[in-house]
Design goal:
This protein has 347 residues and is α/β, with parallel strands linked by helices. It contains eleven helices and 16 strands. The protein has helices at 17-26, 48-58, 76-79, 85-94, 111-114, 129-134, 154-161, 200-207, 249-265, 296-313, 328-339; strands at residues 4-7, 31-33, 40-44, 67-69, 99-104, 119-123, 138-139, 167-170, 181-184, 191-194, 211-212, 241-246, 270-274, 286-289, 317-321, 344-346. The strands form two sheets. Strands 1-8-2-3-7-4-6-5-9-10-11 form an eleven-stranded mixed β-sheet, sandwiched between helices. A five-stranded parallel β-sheet has the order 14-13-15-12-16, sandwiched between helices. The structure holds threonylcarbamoyladenylate and magnesium ion. Threonylcarbamoyladenylate binds at residues 35, 37-38, 40, 64-67, 100, 102, 114, 117, 119-121, 123, 125, 140-142, 179-180, 182, 193, 227-231.
């Protein structure tokens, strides 16, 4: 298949090329779509055969459900059997935006989209124009090959999806860089299933009590199932072996310098994920500055691109600094821990 890449200027009101993308979706095809979180791989959420193509293009296990994206509140009632109070409050406060909510699904949503579940995950992204033009809810997982870091630039989507999908909309770099926060509002007490830019602190401010799925906080033993099926896979993984180093900054830097030296002497290539604040303290290896500790948004924004750059450089091992686990840090550490396959060292 020949994948057509179209460039759009998000500042422009309505790029006519988007009609073409909307037609592809209407006709059951796949389109790479920029959102404020990461690039998505979009298809008609109400068409089980279109959803099936998403799983094939990504190489994704079919029990891992997709998020249905809507362009306005009017589209919500048809997709769900109930809108709980918590869902109403969060929609009012954070939609459009980087928040996905899990609702009990209605009959129009096929099991092929929800991975066989009776619930459906729904998000209204901040720039829903392609979805509005398509006139149907758009199922869109992150547009990476399953297991690779999520795409934050059109270039990443091209790397993973060229030849496998009809079209890619290049809308430049995404804003946030981490996938949306997922909250299950289908039960009695709302539960955070995946941390993102809408933080647990923000959710609790709006809703009061919100529980946290233990899958977010650490590796799961084989008998515990995460509520978001996708959280069980080793996502976001770079090809190299990755070690996440926690502790006082001084200790972290000297540990990484020591380990990097030993690896270099053993003939390995070494990548180091550091920050603006620590960049001058490292003595060897390929350094990537992930952002500034003063502005964690920069860390979130660069995280997946840095992992992909290390893949391109084919490093053998990666050492990464770690971050505080509050606010946006919870999402950053969740992704870094998973990238490292929970290989975490305390120094
Ligand atoms: O920011 C995002 O959410 C991006 C953009 C494209 O919108 N999408 C995204 O989709 O990250 P994906 O498929 O890569 O991740 C969706 C996650 C998976 O972990 C999946 O298991 C979970 O959402 N999920 C989807 N439907 C669910 C449901 N009904 N119940 C629980 N978890 C669900
Ligand atoms: Mg994903």
């Amino acid at each position: 298949m020949n994948t057509k890449v179209i460039q759009i200027d998000k500042e422009r009101d309505l790029d006519p090329q988007l009609f073409e993308a909307a037609d592809v979706i209407k006709n059951g095809g796949l389109v790479g779509i920029p959102t404020e979180t990461v690039y998505g791989l979009g298809a008609n959420a109400l068409d089980a055969s279109a959803s099936k193509k998403i799983y094939e293009a990504k190489g994704r296990p079919s029990d891992n459900p997709l998020i249905a994206h809507i362009s306005c509140m009017d589209e919500l009632p048809a997709l769900v059997s109930e809108i709980p109070e918590a869902g109403k409050k969060l929609a009012e406060k954070y939609w459009p935006g980087p928040l996905t909510m899990v609702f009990p699904k209605s009959d129009v949503v096929p099991y092929g989209t929800t991975g066989g579940l009776d619930t459906v995950a729904i998000r209204m992204p901040s720039d829903p124009i392609a979805i509005r033009l398509a006139g149907v809810p758009v199922a869109a997982p992150s547009a990476n090959t399953s297991g690779r870091p999520s795409p934050t630039k059109a270039k990443h989507v091209i790397e993973d999806m060229d030849g496998k999908i009809e079209m890619i909309i290049d809308g430049g770099e995404v804003g946030i860089g981490l996938e949306s926060t997922i909250v299950d509002v289908s039960g009695e007490i709302p539960m955070l299933l995946r941390p993102g830019a809408i933080t647990i602190e923000m959710l609790r401010e709006t809703l009061g009590r919100v529980e946290i799925d233990p899958a977010i906080l650490g590796p799961l033993s084989a008998d515990v199932k995460p509520k978001a099926p996708g959280m069980k896979y080793r996502h976001y993984a770079p090809k190299a072996e990755m070690t996440l180093v926690e502790g006082e900054m001084e200790n972290v830097v000297s540990f990484i310098n020591r380990e990097a030296k030993a690896a270099l002497e053993a003939g390995k290539s070494v990548g180091i994920i550091c920050t603006e604040e620590s960049r001058s303290l490292y003595e060897g290896g390929i350094l990537k500055v992930i952002g500034s500790r003063e502005h964690e948004e920069t860390v979130a924004h660069n995280l997946f691109a840095v992992l992909r750059e290390f893949d391109d450089r084919q490093v053998d091992c990666i050492f990464s600094e770690s971050f505080s686990k509050d606010r946006l840090g919870q999402a950053i550490m969740n992704r870094l821990c998973k990238a490292a396959g929970y290989h975490i060292v305390n120094v």
